[in-house]
Each structure stands twice: as C-alpha cells, then as structure tokens.
Design a protein that fits this description.
Blueprint (H helix, E strand, L loop, with lengths): L12 H10 L1 H12 L8 H17 L3 E5 L17 E7 L10 E7 L8 H4 L3 E3 L2 E3 L7 H17 L6 E7 L10 H8 L4 E4 L2 E2 L5 E5 L1 E10 L15 H13 L9 E9 L9 E10 L2 H15 L8 E10 L6 H17 L5 E4 L4 H7 L4 E2 L3 E5 L7 E3 L3 H16 L6
Parallel strand pairs: 3-6, 3-7, 7-15, 8-16, 9-14
Antiparallel strand pairs: 1-2, 2-6, 4-5, 5-17, 10-12, 10-13, 11-12, 16-17
InterPro entries: ArgE/DapE_CS, Bact_exopeptidase_dim_dom, Pept_M20_glutamate_carboxypep, Peptidase_M20, Peptidase_M20_dimer, Peptidase_M20A
Keywords: Hydrolase, Metal-binding, Zinc
Organism: Streptomyces toyocaensis
C-alpha cells in the first residue's frame, strides 16, 4: 500500500477575510513605517533599511533569510552602480513533491523612484480611505500585503506547499541591472510565481507585460569639406534621418509592437560632411515572436542605407523578456477569479507595456500572475495613492492563492 496523502482541505477564501480585516490597522501602521524610509534605487542604505525591516518580519514567520550583496553593475547605463541587497527567504511547507506540493515564489521590490528627502517632504498620510506617500503603491503596499498574507497563513497554521520563497529586490525601478541574475536563478527552482506589484487602478491583475529591447544603430559615412568637395563625402546624418523615418514606420505593423527612436546624435562641425551618426531606439513587444519580427525589420532597414557610401551596424544593448499569458498563467488567473468571487468581488486581468521583475521570472518559463497587491495608482508621481479598503480582500486573495497553488490543486 502507498503511504496516505498528507493533503487536507485548505481554508476557504471567505474564512481568511475576517483575519485579513483584523490586520488592517497594523498594516497601515507598518506601511507608514516603510514609506517613512527613503529607499530610492540609488540609495543603498535606504534600501537596506527596508531589507532589515522585511528580514525581521520574515524571520519571525519562520523563514530562513539570505541577504545577497550583488556586485556592481558593469555595463550601461549604470556602470559601477551599487545598490542595496537582494533578499531571498525560504520556508518549507508540510507537503513534499510526492504529495503534490509546489514551490511558490512571491516577488516584490524595495526600491522607489524617489530621491532622498522625499519621505520627509511628502510623508505618509491618510485622506479618508486613501493612503499617500512615496512608494505607497509602488511597491511598498504590495510588499507589505505579501508579508501580511504570510502572517495570516502562519496564524491559521496553514502550510500546504512544498516551499515558499520570498524575493525582494533593490533595483527594479532601474531595470534590475544587479539583481537580474539572482532573480532568474531563484525563479528556476519554483513552480508558480505571484508578483506583488499593486493592482491596476480598476482592480485588474496583470496577466501579461511587454518585453523591451534597446538597440544602438551606428551609421558610418565619409567626411569631406562641406564647401569645397561635398561630393566626396557620404553624409551619415542624412542616412540616419532616413533611417529614423523607416524605423518609426514600423509602428502599427504588428499588434502591440512599438518602436521608438529616442536618441539621435550626428556630426561635430557644420562645415564637415557628417562621417558618423548614432541612433538609440527601444522596441516593446507582447511576445518573443514579435520581438524577433521587429529585430529582423530593424536589421533589414539597416542593411539598405539611403545614402550611398554609408553603412549601418546594429547592436542590441539590453533585453527584458515579455511576460506572456500562457495556459498555465491563465489557469492561475482562473483560480484567482474563483477565490475573488468567494470573497465577494469580481476580478479582471490586463496586459501592460510596463516591465518589472515579473518579466524576468516569466522569461525562465515559470507561470506568473502579477498585480496581487492592493489597488493603487499614480505611481512615480507626487499623487501616488493606495486604496486601503482593498487591503483585506487582496490579502485574503493572496493567501488563498498560496494555498490553492501550493498543493498542486490548480495543475489540472
């Protein structure tokens, strides 16, 4: 006879709502503490102060916490950048893989876009049911919602999973240049990932995010005296101008794909036929297939410069993979919809052009559902807000999803 399964029914979503509501006062107190700490991406001490706070909370919940100090970034646009630590915490559950237990990753970031001093200039405030302050929505409200959901499950004595992994990064707002490798390594060992960015302003979760690729195109021409013998030159600036028009014309060729030439540099003196020019452009695309199509089109345009005697080289500088809506992530969203319905609200999903750590996790092949924090908006602005009435429902939803996904019940 085989050994009996260690599975048992998890808590119903509605049973988690009351305990989530009882945590709202503490949540707001803790959120005020986090928002009062300046933790811009370029402020490693501030980010590490947040990491200290998160580590204390996770340790109290039985997690083994590792702090990783990444090496400085070694390439553009942030050469020699130092950031705060990456925090990776792990907690084993009561299930094994043989029992159907799954490894669940919760991912958030500790950095904000704001400079040191912003927390003092614009401190945490409550205006009715709306909280304001730097990072209140992006991402301190979501980070704290994840910790609150874990605290709720701890109190309930629930650990229906093989392992929980909590990842908090220090540099998401600048493209995760130093934490990317760590994020990808952590992601490769899990079965499902839940992104703790806050929900969209209408309450939607995020099911897909576009990928981003940055390119540099260098146009080489031939210098000549512009007044005496211009015919001996090959004007790289003119070739670049034609190329800008051709590249911008790619917009609209494929659904959801955008191409933007954001930087144009050419020449040094007006009396010299321009010998060199540079274009910097960004491509955003919803799928890897679309990315490949766009790159081929860029290379084809570069292979046919409009000015005789010029040549163009194409270099890809950076790439963040798309977070695509897969069958597995669609099943995760369906489970979230059922849990939300049990909690008394409807749940939608959307795709966005913004990127985040969820893209990197998805790029490893792990199904991801993002936007599981409370409802917020006006990110990166002085008007940033968080709807505190959504905190209990979203915490209960997150805790429910951990129990649903953790025992393999959503695999079918």
């Amino acid at each position: 006879m085989s050994a009996p399964s260690r599975k048992r029914p998890g808590p119903r979503p509605v049973d988690l709502l009351g305990p989530a509501r009882s945590r709202l006062r503490r949540y707001l107190h803790d959120l005020a503490d986090l928002v009062a700490t300046d933790s811009g991406s370029y402020s490693p001490d501030g980010v590490n102060a947040v990491a200290d706070w998160v580590q204390t909370r996770l340790t109290s919940l039985g997690f083994a916490v590792e702090r990783i100090r990444p090496p400085a970034a070694d390439g553009p646009p942030v050469a020699a950048l130092r950031t705060g630590d990456v925090l990776v915490a792990r907690k084993a559950g009561r299930l094994t893989e043989a029992d159907g237990g799954r490894r669940i990753l919760l991912a958030a970031h500790m950095d904000t876009v704001f400079e040191d001093g912003t927390a003092a200039e614009r401190p945490f405030t409550l205006d009715g049911t709306r909280a304001h302050g730097p990072g209140v929505s992006d991402d301190k409200g979501g980070l704290l919602a994840g910790l609150t959901a874990l605290d709720l499950l701890q109190e309930q004595g629930e650990s229906p999973y093989a392992e929980l992994v909590f990842l908090a990064t220090p540099d998401e707002e600048i493209g995760s240049p130093v934490s990317r490798r760590i994020t990808e390594e952590v992601a490769r060992g899990v079965d499902h990932a839940l992104g703790l960015e806050c929900a969209r302003e209408n309450g939607d979760l995020v099911l897909a995010r576009k990928g981003v690729a940055d390119f540099r195109l260098t146009v080489t021409g031939r210098a000549a005296h512009a007044g005496i013998e211009p015919e001996r030159g090959a004007n790289a600036a003119l070739a670049a101008a034609h190329l800008v028009v051709a590249l911008q014309a790619l917009n609209g060729r494929w659904d959801g794909v955008t191409v933007n030439v954001g930087v144009v540099r050419a020449g040094h003196r007006p009396n010299i036929v321009c010998p060199e020019a540079e274009l910097r452009l960004e491509v955003r695309a919803p799928t890897a297939t679309d990315e490949r199509r766009a790159r081929r089109a860029i290379e084809e345009a570069a292979a046919r410069p409009a000015v005789p005697g010029t040549a163009v080289t194409v270099e890809q500088l950076d790439h963040c993979p798309p977070m695509e809506a897969t069958e597995a992530s669609q099943r995760m969203f369906a489970a979230a919809q059922r849990a939300a319905a049990a909690l008394g609200f409807t749940l939608g999903a959307t795709a966005t052009g913004g990127v985040g750590d969820a893209n990197l996790i998805s790029g490893t092949g792990v199904p991801v559902l993002d936007g599981l924090g409370p409802v917020g908006g006006a990110d990166h602005s002085p008007q940033e807000w968080l709807d505190t009435t959504t905190v209990p429902q979203r915490v209960a939803l997150l805790a429910s999803l951990i129990t649903i996904l953790g025992d393999g019940g959503n695999d079918a």
